[in-house]
Amino acid sequence: MAGMLRAIFLLLACQLAGEALHRLTGLPLPGTVIGMVLLVAWLALVPRERPALSAVTAWLTAHLAVMFVPAAVGLVEEGPVLSRHGAGLIVATTLSTVLTLVVTALVFRWALQRYAPESGR
Amino acid sequence: MSEGALLAMPLLWLTGTLGVFELFDRISKRCNRHPLLHPVLWSTPVLIGALLVTGTSYDTYRQATFPLSFLLGPAVVGLAVPIWAERRRIRRLALPILLSLMAGALTSIVSAVGVLALFGAPTTLLASIAPRATTTPVAMAVAGQLGGIPALAAIIVLFAGVLGAMVATPLLNAIKVRDYRARGFALGIASHGIGAARAFQVDATAGALASLGMALNAIATAALLSMIALLA
Q: pTM here?
């Protein structure tokens, strides 16, 4: 259990450092994303087995969906916007998602054949 | 205690949100996680209905459910763990990963913002759709920074996730991309966590690459949009 507490502390400390960097340096990335990069750096600098951290982050990722329900409910205040621009939002999101899938997959395959043809899985 | 006071209790809305979500999550699980049965898609309208019926303001609800929203922060930071876990594969596939990440992130931003602009949407909406390929908490943060509407960003991201998860298999078959690494990575870039969940159902390698794509795209899209915001 002590490992769990340390893992939670590590996550919060990285987030806090990310927020501090975001505010103090004016770095425009969101504090949480800076925190993610800081945590990758920390894992690289202090390499060791971290079963508790893996367990905590796996739990958080598995329950991500319920955490953004409160934000989604905020749509209750956006009725006029949705009825006016709903069609455009649906078309733009659909086209963008399909195009992104196709472009990413094709570029990945092309680069795989060009630069890493021998790599196994 | 009066009825009004109970409706203002954080405990009521927090419990209600978890309860409603759990209900739809069970239905989703029973139907083999079909993307159209994503629990957020169904619990959101039910909770909106509950707010309207009880005459509760969104502000009251938002404050009551703050403990849930708070967890989004550490969850985003925790995406570092899959990136670190995949470090050997990242080194081996550095160029395919880097090039397709950049191509995918740019395609997603430009096509979403471009098409929506053709519909004559105002800047607040363009800012809300720009981060649509990132995982929800990052999309909400980026949209907020760009002057968009975080709640709208959350719903757009959700829709993109459900759509990607549904069309990925027939679409990638049609363009004849059969490598599971390319398929998984593309799904993670285009459709974040919902895409990754779908990829894991099909193939473990595809799932791992999809999680990696989601985590890396959170950084790439946020960085690209931050640069654009600085220049604008």
A: 0.86
Strands, E, within chain B: which ranges? none
Token pair recorded at residue B61: 């609800």
CB-based contact A70 B65, cutoff 8 Å: yes
In tens, the pLDDT along B1-47 reads 455 666 667 899 999 999 999 999 999 999 988 878 888 889 999 99
Torsion of CA B176, B37, B78, B113, to 10 degrees: 60
Q: Which residue type, as a one-letter code, is found at position B66?
A: F
Segment holding B173, helix H or strand E: helix B150-174
Q: Beta-carbon neighbour count of residue A63 at 10 Å?
A: 14
**Residues A32, A76: Cα–Cα separation, whole Å:** 26
The beta-carbon neighbor of B190 closest among A77, A101, A116 is A101
Q: What is the pLDDT of residues B155-179, one digit of tens each?
A: 899 889 889 988 998 999 999 999 9
